[in-house]
């Protein structure tokens, strides 16, 4: 299977010049490729306990920790402020 970044055919182009892979290309992605695909555009928030205090950890789609916040609302705001899509993992 070719790397999704190497493919330019069968990719639809949107008005803003942003290209998206076709559904067929997305179906063929491995779990690792899925993680890489969303690593820069999707982050998830996960409730954690740090030193006995509730908090929310923020991770890139590939699981890399990228931040923390005291509440889910602040974690979501931080994710959105950095131009990423937010997901909650519980």
Report the β-strand fraction as a percent range: 25-35%
Globally, the shape reads elongated
Largest sheet composition: 4 strands, mixed
Please tell me the overall pLDDT.
Answer: 77
Number of helices: 3
Structural class: alpha+beta
Low-pLDDT parts are 1-15
Strand order within the widest sheet? 5-4-3-6
Give the fraction of residues assigned to helices: 25-40%
Tally of strands: 6
Succession of helices and strands = EEHHEEEHE
Radius of gyration over alpha carbons? 16 Å
How many domains comprise the coordinates? 2
Rounded to the nearest angstrom, the distance between the terminal CA atoms is 33 Å
Please provide a written account of the structure.
The chain has 90 residues and is α+β, with helices and mostly antiparallel strands. It has 2 domains: 1-38, no CATH class; 41-90. It has 3 helices and 6 strands, in the order ββααβββαβ. It has helices at residues 23-27, 31-38, 72-81, and strands spanning 12-13, 19-20, 42-50, 53-60, 65-69, 85-88. A 4-stranded mixed beta sheet has the order 5-4-3-6, with helices on one face. Strands 1-2 form a two-stranded antiparallel sheet. The N and C termini lie far apart (33 Å).
């Amino acid at each position: 299977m070719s790397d999704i970044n190497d493919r330019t055919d069968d990719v639809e182009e949107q008005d803003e010049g942003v290209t998206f892979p076709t559904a067929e290309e997305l179906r063929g992605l491995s779990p690792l490729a899925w993680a890489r695909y969303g690593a820069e555009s999707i982050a998830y928030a996960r409730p954690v306990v740090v030193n006995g205090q509730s908090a929310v950890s923020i991770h890139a789609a590939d699981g890399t920790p990228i931040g923390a916040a005291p509440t889910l609302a602040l974690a979501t705001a931080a994710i959105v402020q950095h131009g990423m899509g937010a997901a909650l993992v519980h």
